[in-house]
Amino acid sequence: MTEKKCAPPSPTFPPLSRRSLLRASAIGPALLMSGSLDAAPRAAFTHSVASGDPEQRSVTLWTRYVSPDAAAVWLQVEVAEDEQFERIVFRSSALSSPDRDFCVHTRPEKLKPGTYYYYRFRAANGDLSPTGRTRTLPEGPLERFRIGVFSCANATSGWFNAYAHAAARDDIDLLVHLGDYIYESKLSRSDALEGMAELRGIEPAHEVVSLSDYRKRYASYRADPALQELHRRFPAIVMWDDHETVNNSWTNGAANHDPASEGRWTDRMAAGVQAFYEWLPMREKPYSEYQLGDLATLFRLETRLTGRTEQLDLKEAINDHGEDIAAAAMSFRDGPLNDPTRSMMGAGQEQWLAESLATSTASGTKWQILAQQVIMGRSRMPEDFEAFFGPGDRPSNRKLAEMERAARLAAIGVPIHMDRWEGYPAARRRLLQASQNAEADLVVLSGDSHNAWAFNLDHDDRPVGVELAVQGVSSLGMDKRYHGDPATIAKRFVDANPDLVWCDTSQRGYMVLDIEADRIVNEWLFIPSRFARTAEVSATHRMQVTRGSRRLSFSE
Q1: pLDDT value of residue 341
Q2: I need a surface site. Which of 16, 211, 235, 315 has the fewest CB within 10 A?
Q3: Quick one: which H or E segment has residue 454?
Q4: Among the listed residues 131, 146, 319, 325, the one whose alpha carbon sits nearest the alpha carbon of residue 233
C-alpha cells in the first residue's frame, strides 16, 4: 500500500467562485472543532440542496423547505449557467408539502450535455436556499470521467470524514452511493461510540420501523455538514441496500424483521422506500442506466427488494445432517445453493441488463460498469485463520469452531456469505454469461462489506471482468471481529482466494474511479473516521484494468 499525505487534487473542472469556496472551506473547521452538528440555528431551508439522477439534458434538483406554519407552499426554482444567475436557463415552481416530509423535487429538461449549472430555490417570503452546483452527463466522444464511490455510512460508528474530503475536491464529475446511506438499527448497537449519536443529533433512538421513524433518521443523517456540502457541489446517483429498510432484506422479508413486534413487512418496506425517494434526488425507478459519453454505460442495479429470493440458512442446512458435515455441505452445494430459480434481481431486471449490456457494446461504448450493492467475487475462509487474532485476544471455542467449519466448507466449495452473489451462484452465472455474450469490458462496483476488495471475475474459466469493492465511509468492517495484524489478515485472504487480487480489512474512506478509453484506474482513499473529524488521508491504494484484458493490475 502506498503511504502519502493528502495532496490537493488537480482542479481539472470549473471550480466554484472564491466566495463559494470560502463558504465551503468552513466545513473543515466545523468538522474538526464544532460540537453538535445540529447546533446552528435552522433556516426554513433545513437541509441545503442536492442534485442527482443526471442525464444528458436533465437532472433532479432537491431541497427541503418547512414554512413557519408547516403548510404546503410553492417554491420558485432557478437554474443558471453562472453562479451569479445572470444567464438563467430554467424557471419553474415546485411544491413543499407535509405529504412528502417537505422534501422538494424538480427536474429541469432541455439542458445542455456535459455542462455545469447552478441552481437555487426561493420562497414567496424571500427565503433563499444555498446555491447548488450540478452537471449533466456528457454526450459523444469523451476523454475522461471521474466518479467518487461511497457506501456504508453508520453515523454512530464514526464521522463522515470521507464525505468531507470528497466535498473539497474539484476533479469529480459524479457521485455514486452504493447503499447503506442510513442505518435503521437502534443507536445503542454494539459498534456505536458512546455519546456519538447524541453529539450528532441522530434520531430516533430505537430501531426505525414506521415512515415517521425513517424520515427522522434521514433528517438527522442529512444534518451532517459534510454530507450536505457533498450533495451541494456534485450530482449523485444513489441506490438502497439493506439498511435503508432493514438488515439482510429480501423481496418478502428480512432477517432482522419480526412481524409479531414490527408489523407487516410490506408496510415497513414501503415506508423505507418512500423515505428514500423523499430524501434523495432520485426518480422513482428501482434500476436504470446512464450513458457517460462514448466511454462507459453505468448500470444502477437493484438487488434487494424487487426480485431477491430469501437468503439460505447455511447453519440450519448443515445442522440438519448431524455430524457428517462433508456430506451435508455437498448436498447443500448441489441442491438448494445452486437452485436455478433463486434470483438476486428477478427475471425482468436480468433480461433488461443482458439486453442493455449487448446494446452498450454494439454502440461502441468502451466500458460497461455495474453499480450495485453486494460483492460478486468469491471469498473463502482461509485455513490459517488463527492469525486473525492478536496477542491476548483468544476467541471463544465456539467462534473457533465456526471458523474451522467455514474453512472446511470452503474446501468443498461452499461460500461464507449467503447474502452476497456467491449465495446465489446460478444468478451470478447468468449475469456473467450475459456480460460474456455481450463481449463487455465489465467493471463491477460493490459496497456492503465495509472493507476494500479487488477481484478478478471469471466465467467458464475465461476472464469476464473485474470487481472493485469500496470500504465503508464510517461503518466498521472485519476489524470489528478480528483484531490481528491487518496486513496478515489481508494476505491470508488473498492467498486463500484465487479471484482476490488485493484487500484491506481495517480502514474507512471512499474510492475514485478514473475512466479513460484504454484503462480504468481506481484509487482507494483511506481516511480515519472512528474518533476524530479529519480530512487527512492516511493511505491510498491504486489498481487498474486495461481495456480488453478484463484483469486487474497494480497501478502507481
Answers
A1: 97
A2: 315
A3: strand 452-459
A4: 131
